[in-house]
Amino acid sequence: MQNVINNCDQKMKKCIASLSSDYANLRTGRASAALFDKIKVDYYGAETPLSQVASISVPEARLVVIQPWDKTVLSAIEKAIQKSELGLNPNNDGKLIRVNFPPLTQDRRKELAKQAKASAEGAKVAVRNVRRDAMEDLKKLQKASEISEDQQKDGESKIQKLTDAAIAEIGKVAEAKEKEIMEI
User: Fold this and answer.
1) Among positive and negative, which fits the CA dihedral 115, 118, 123, 126?
2) Residue 137 and residue 150: Cα distance in Å, rounded?
3) What whole-number distance in Å separates Cα of residue 67 and Cα of residue 160?
4) Cβ atoms of 95 and 87 closer than 8 Å
């Protein structure tokens, strides 16, 4: 029974981590190096993560500077950023690339906040699915006479507490992201 509860707890934590990862890639009005984590650059014929071909720094709140270790890859980095879904326009000066983050419009902020809520709702659904699976596992253990009915009820109670805690954590993460998006 403890194995089912531990497994459930780990899966719920993964749901929260996945949401945080999604939020790191959601553009707000601030510059963030994490936005470039999923960008791949054509580096001598191989799709290579941007972070492996250049250093990415955030010197100001609305500016990201990308300095490649190999100057020949500058144009490939520029193309990769333009092709990405970030909607950013990189400036290449021959040595490094500057990416300015223009302030978001109010409509765009509302759209991003709605997207953040949808991601949070998806994470909550994933947590509830983990709970359902764990409850079914407990029922199977009880039917196979590996645990008693009282142990099953106790396990279900613990799983429900884990679920409530995970959903509360998702709510906090979502609220913080929405606040960050709506900041001017």
Assistant:
1) negative
2) 15
3) 48
4) no
3-state secondary structure the chain: CHHHHHHHHHHHHHHHHHHHHHHHCCCCCCCCHHHHCCCEEEECCEEEEHHHCEEEEEEECCEEEEEECCHHHHHHHHHHHHHCCCCCCEEECCCCEEEECCCCCHHHHHHHHHHHHHHHHHHHHHHHHHHHHHHHHHHHHHHCCCCCHHHHHHHHHHHHHHHHHHHHHHHHHHHHHHHHHHCC
Query: How do 97-100 and 90-92 pair as beta strands?
Result: antiparallel
Contact by Cβ (8 Å): 63, 74: no
Say what the pTM is.
0.72
Note whether 127 and 170 are within 8 A (CB): yes
Over the stretch 84-122, which tens digit does the pLDDT of each residue have? 877 788 998 888 999 888 777 888 888 888 989 999 999
